[in-house]
Amino acid sequence: MRAFIYTGGVIHPDNITEHPKAEDLCIAADSGYHNAQRLGERVDILIGDFDSIGRVPRDDVRDIREVPAEKDLTDTQIALEIAVEAGADEIIVIGGLSGRLDHGLSNLGILEDMCLRGLHGYMTDGQNRVHYLKSSSTLIARSGYKYISILAADETVKGVSMEGGKYPLKNQTLKRRLQYAVSNEITGNVVLISVKKGSIFIIESRDV
What we know:
The protein has 208 residues and is an alpha/beta fold. Helices cover 16% and strands 35% of the residues. The protein has 3 helices and 13 strands.
């Protein structure tokens, strides 16, 4: 089952190609409701403390779940828990990569959490699309994102390779304190990215 989570922050609707199908679950985290509206998408579940949404759209959403403003988890983290409880094993997060840096970094942690739970998915706002990869490999297709970067998520990441990029990497070691695999470009139809030991963020991005 696939779930979409719409969260707050600036999005670039014209660049977002991910859209739910009828059978997908759509969850909005607080002001993420407005981003769902900008994309013309429905919202099945609205969750939040509603400190940033303004008027709660009680006529448009049947399932509204209000949570306390003082809580341990962010609204987006709670939305993830709801998706998992509903049976989702693939989760696409829309938004959450702009605005407050603390929220942005927290949201990147959600991708790591998803990976450790065996869930698939990524996060995008239309300017950036972020995947998390741990001791594995993946194919990334060429798309409207011009740049592709690999950032070490652990202190040291070993055996990092990229095939199909303008600047190939082969069995490299990356360190979190010194990131250099930035602003690469896909030259063919796809790139193959692999890491032998450790975790990385794969970030596709474009200028806007």
